[in-house]
Amino acid sequence: MAVKAEVNQLKDGDKKGLVDSVETFIFDCDGVIWKGDSLIEGVPETIAMLREMGKRLIFVTNNSTKSRAGYLKKFLGLGLEITAEEVFSSSFAAAAYLESVNFPKDKKVYVVGEVGILEELDGVGIQYLGGEADGDKKVTLSPGQLMEHDPDVAAVVVGFDRNVNYYKIQYATLCIRENPGCQFIATNTDAVTHLTDAQEWAGNGSMVGAIKGSTKREPTVVGKPAPFMLDYIANKFDIRKDQICMVGDRLDTDILFGKDGGLRTLLVLSGVTDEATLKSPENEIHPDYYTSKLADLLTIKASVNA
Amino acid sequence: MAVKAEVNQLKDGDKKGLVDSVETFIFDCDGVIWKGDSLIEGVPETIAMLREMGKRLIFVTNNSTKSRAGYLKKFLGLGLEITAEEVFSSSFAAAAYLESVNFPKDKKVYVVGEVGILEELDGVGIQYLGGEADGDKKVTLSPGQLMEHDPDVAAVVVGFDRNVNYYKIQYATLCIRENPGCQFIATNTDAVTHLTDAQEWAGNGSMVGAIKGSTKREPTVVGKPAPFMLDYIANKFDIRKDQICMVGDRLDTDILFGKDGGLRTLLVLSGVTDEATLKSPENEIHPDYYTSKLADLLTIKASVNA
């Protein structure tokens, strides 16, 4: 029998206590900061208020199609003043993970994924193959033919890829099967992604599933809800995890990521999760608090100024 | 602790007893009858001998890229005289499965797969979309765009597909997510396939993995080692399962399929499994007998004629 869920709606009286108890906010982007290409109401004001209160702000996203630089452009284009150091995408996490394990500079990465991963690998000076360059390749066969592959590929990174094809799947699985010690790294395993707001689109769970389905290997996941990004951030900024509040719209990535990491957690209902799903007996992931949108925190300002 | 494996090599003295004890042989094709485009030594003579002894012969393959008619051409091209009724491919099994559940004639199937599945669906008069027709489609996006999908799609069939792409993955997952009751059928979940003999190629496990990774649904598998084809064959020919001998080269599909179904089992080492793998303590799938190749049975003829 499931225990009845304790789910606390964030009340005005809780807000200052929550904000005062942490020094850092980690925000998921899609469904918290923006939906597709539109800012969510009240976000710039809330972010400005938290900055004035001296909070460190960090923006994380499982989307690997853009690099940190690509995301920075999106933030600035929406009128949000942030810096590249405040953005952590799963494309960056893949490159940071390879650096953290001292990936040899004479080895290469095979990429199933889009430009964000390639830009981040360039940023840390790691050689790569695949990605966009293999988007139009086909496998045409004659008897006895084999696909040559580079024996220097020592890691396969799999991120969301609109141009996934059999050539890339075979190249990636060949490297994992035949190159001794070749790593298999997934930016995330999200079932769906929001290419547009109009419907759910198959996410990187599909690309990772294609590689798992042939290699029978489990990937090292660097995006949410795996702990790599959180450990990296806590270490880089020397922050205690209990002084971080994770704000997100997804229970099984954002809130799980926060709870597994020992963070405070705040679910916002401005993205994919509705109140019924949160309170359903099937849901076992319970944030510390939930509220309709990030801007609900703004009433702190009113009470401080009053 | 694993129990030490009992693995019996087929000796001359066992052969006649094994053959006499069954009325039907089910042969896997690749690695038993042929390798790629070459017949394995002694196969025509062995098949002729078994026919002379009055045995029923059935040829099964998990490969869905050809239809029964397509396989018949391959058999005849290699000089093996068989009939279409003796061939069971996983493409046929997908169509037979849909017939067995009375798939409505006003509903449609979305196909991730090659021509074999399309031909078999034509054969049973089931409407379909996808397959080869969607092989070159791309997803190009503008804000707010959605991919339209046919609400009459009531099943997605996933088979090996050299032209798998994001369009097909999204279409298939949309149907499974959004069309109530839509079935998800896999011809097989083989990790690798032998497009050519030169190397292992990612198999339908990749295509099925891509759909599972987004839908989080498990497919109904109609090929080996799932029981559907065996039940269909036993029912169609009214054969007792203990009077069937399954001959195959793969432990985790052919021999498992036979053992799960209560058949006699004979592993041949002319395909992907070697003696070391068979006898390894990690292997828990033990055939009744193993032998180097199908033609080893020919010594029965010598002893009968002697």
UniProtKB/TrEMBL annotation, chains A, B:
Sample GO molecular function, one term: metal ion binding
Cofactor note: Divalent metal ions. Mg(2+) is the most effective.
Keyword Transferase: no
Top EC category: hydrolase
Residues of the active site: D28 (nucleophile), D30 (proton donor)
The EC number(s) this enzyme carries: 3.1.3.18
Record-listed Mg(2+) binding positions: D28, D30, D249
Residues engaged in binding substrate: K224
Known function: Photorespiratory enzyme that dephosphorylates the 2-phosphoglycolate produced by the RuBisCO oxygenation reaction.
Name of the protein in its database record: Phosphoglycolate phosphatase
